[in-house]
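Lecture 7 notes: from sequence to structure.
We start with the chain below.
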Amino acid sequence: MAIAETDPGWFRAQKRLLDEVEHGVREANRAVIGQRIPEVTRDGFLRLATVVARLRADYLNCALTLGRDNRGEVTSEDVARLNRLRLAYDEARLAFEALERCVQRGYVDIAVPTATRTPF
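Predicted structure tokens for the same chain:
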């Protein structure tokens, strides 16, 4: 049996190290991301969500038209277009998720909400 498996001091040191690393990662992300994105607004978030929704709709619409418009015969151009639309949707979705994670983890400041219209 290894000493690490039985030594409570080792477990405390491990937890302390991981806590310090987590704190350092949070501070690094807050400093670096905060310089480029000083604050996130509700409208900015909703605009990005709207872009993701539109790209998702474009992608799904293209997929549905493959069988409807081409009688099931799909060309390499059809597949290439579908691929481009999927990539655009996936990238935008991942960006939204990354922004959401930044907000959840406190890497960016949140703007004070104001009464505004939904951007879509």
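Points to note: Residues 40-105 form one domain. The mean pLDDT is 89.
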